[in-house]
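USER:
Make up one protein:

ASSISTANT:
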Amino acid sequence: MSTLVTVEHLAKSFGDHQVLQDISFGAEAGTVTCIIGPSGSGKTTLLRSLNALEIPDRGIVTIGDCTVDFATITPGPRGRLPKAQRELLAALRAKSGMVYQSHNLFPHKTALENVIEGPVVVQGEAVAEATVRGRELLERVGLSAHADKYPFQLSGGQQQRVGIARALAGRPSVVLFDEPTSALDPELVGDVLGVMKSLAAEGWTMIVVTHELRFAQQVADQVLFIDGGLVVESGPPSEVIANPQHPRTQAFLTRLLEPI
């Protein structure tokens, strides 16, 4: 396998608060990377930085043949990025599909319309072609019978599966998941994780921010434990989750696994 995603010395601050201090890691094509850590540790900011939804202060992100050195991304006098930089960020975003914590579906569009929005509007794909593929993707996530329903007519788990289909519609190199089950009722979590497990089995490259330790143990090729904007510990789940070496990782997992 070859390295598909490379992150080098990523840093990001919001005012005086440094969320990411110095993050570096790599992910090989066809593998699943799970990111765990306490609230406020920088997990979501890291994920959003990979497709430039957040612009890091410095650091380099490479996905496939697209590399962005964020130290060179500098707004012009009116706060607008130069055209070449906007195009570079757009090229990076095109390499990934994002599945959000709270679905982020367009409420006035059907499930199918949500799925084909990106390919048609952003990528210029013909509506007929995008529709055929959109229906295939909804079938892929078990929602072929719900293509014409609006988000308010779907359960939270169904909405999240529409979100997964939408992320896949752009044919991304890597799929980014930001706590995809944290907003769901417990009985709906299994359906979403089932889709994610099948995607992993099919060889999709996935980077997943999650608190689902069992999923990480079963599916992840590597786990990153992040705290204080740093990668404190990384490795296969058999090491990081089952046999953590760093005291911060041990303390976090102990709290997470404590009986209620």
